[in-house]
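Sanity check

After download, print the first record. It should look like this:
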Amino acid sequence: MRKTKIILPAILIIAIVISAFFPCLENNFIDNWDDQGYVTNNPVVKNLSFRNVELAFTSFFIANYQPITILTYILEYHFFKLDPFGYHLASLILHTLNCLLVFWLIYLLAGKASIAFLTSLLFGIHPLRVESVAWVSETKDVLYAFFFLSSLVSYYYYRERKEAKYYLASLCLFILSLLSKAMAITLPLILLLMDYLKRRKIEKKMFTEKIPFFALSFLFGALALYAQYSIGAVRKGFLLSIMEKFTLPCYSIIFYIYKLIFPLNLSCFYPYMPTKDIFLFFYPAIAVICLLVVIILSGKYTRKIIFGSLFFLICILPVLQFVPIGQTIAADRYTYIPSVGILYLFSTGFIWFFSKKLKYNRIIKATLLIAVIGITVFFSILTWQRCQVWKDSLALWDDALNKYPYSAFTLYNRGNALFNKRQYDAAYLDFINASVIEPKFVLPRINLANFDIIAGRYKEAISTINRIIKEHPEELAAYEVLAVAYSMSGDHAQELRVNKQITEKKPGYAQGFFNLCNAYINTQNFQKAINACQKAAELDPSLASAEMHLAMLYHNTKQHDLAILHYDKAIKLGYPADPEFLKSLKAYQK
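Expected structure tokens:
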């Protein structure tokens, strides 16, 4: 009977969750927002080798340290190459497993399968989950959550059975969670919260056993901040007053709670409000203070409200913008684990009310059941629709612009999506509008310079980019466009100079050395071109164009054996065969 109470809800959860998220299996990569940095243009994931495993553990990727996530991409690429279906399937499987872990954890904590089922079901089908599941770049979200929840379950068994193996399992799973995503740093506080809920006696051991957890949290928290600072993701120009440092996080808290209750008008991007509108943030601050008072007072009657509320607040804490990072004030993905606390509260309250014997008991219970079924259907439909929004880059940014039509960042990204689909006039208009709305945002201006190059207006492009470099000397994309402008205008000496600057600024950038190779070819320095191309191939072993360039360069310098070797490498990497070049090589083949 007990097994039936667990197995049947678990099967139902799996069926409903997979049904709601099924459309995401047909989605593509979001090729102009992180997917290219993590997968499609990331040389590290394209070869399952000891060297790339080492790079996964010793490198930052898009200002994050997450080696387990990178290892996952390496394995996915090994089996699926660039077929997005495999990546989406893996994320959906992980999300489904996480739903079962939520069920397991809440069942252990609440002791009721009904509360666990409702919490897990709402967690699994909530529209806020879509960003974490349907976006390949957020594999880290479902991955860290899997280890995070597993660690909590292991800790529960350690507390109940007093066996060291469960403690070690919890600690090891926590390390894996941290290595997947730094947001796992909140776990030690959740362990203390679990002790509070289960009325553990306050003693020295309760705190000393958490020391390794807190030490790891401090280490990975510092590493995460360093990674963000290293590429300038922290908005240094967005200085917050002491008051703003309080009101902005309060706004985010109320925003997330509101979206959990009413998951409408969701967007992949929620821009910062202008600083002059900061007074609008005082209302959420007052609401947060009132909620905190209610939560504290509830402790006289039950520990469940404090547990659920603090679970949410603690887990969401790292992304409340005390240190402003990036260009968005909130993100759906940030609610992945934190939402468990709010949904636990709702489910506990619902089951408590449902089990009470009231006047008109049958009518009330029937109404409550209809309401829960209605919410389940409503959330499932919203999730199904939201999965289709993440179909590709253009669909995603079209949706975001419908919500925030005056966001320069959103216009810029849609412009890139349009450009990739060869809708050049529409892309040009988006870049113009983005640069007008936010003149200090340089990327649209760089893309406009690209349009000047395409139109043959090389002097205008060079002038524009030089102004941008003067304002933003570390903007690598500007140097790349400048090098192209000089190349197209025939000034190869300047092209060479700029490409050298790029490789000096970013010595681990394979494409930079490949471009330097082309610059040396244009200046007739073939030996240095070979050296630069070898460096590009070394940095990115999957760069087929570098291998083909080496084949041509060795052929031109009469090193035919090496030419044949690199031609074969290029073909194996997927470079289109050149029958005429192959014919000329065969004449020298031994």
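If your output differs, re-run the checksum step. Summary of this record's structure: The chain has a mean pLDDT of 89.
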